[in-house]
Specification:
Elements lengths: L14 H8 L11 H29 L6 H6 L20
Length: 94
């Protein structure tokens, strides 16, 4: 069965019905509250990020373009080498 996101379905048109089904007045995040609006905004951003990640994964799987020419111009490694990893910590002084 195909995933809804691959079919291009947009659930925003059903938002009111979904809110009525899953966000009652006794819920921790009832529909119509600022927290609910924040949750919906987060969900939209999350779906956008996931869609972008999937597109990047498909692009990488479809055929890697090889080493990054900008990395070569800058004189930095084009691939990750764990032996060159540098541990860094940021400490906030009060």
């Amino acid at each position: 069965m195909a995933k809804p996101e691959s079919q291009g379905l947009d659930f925003s048109q059903f938002q009111q019905e979904l809110d009525g089904a899953f966000h009652s007045r006794s819920d921790r995040i009832p529909a119509g509250t600022p927290e609910h609006a924040e949750l919906m905004a987060f969900a939209q951003r999350f779906l956008g990020v996931r869609k972008k990640q999937k597109a990047e994964e498909q692009q990488k799987a479809g055929g890697a373009s090889g080493p990054n020419p900008r990395a070569e111009d800058l004189g930095i490694p084009t691939t990750y080498e764990p032996r060159y990893r540098v541990n860094v910590a940021v400490v906030r002084l009060r």
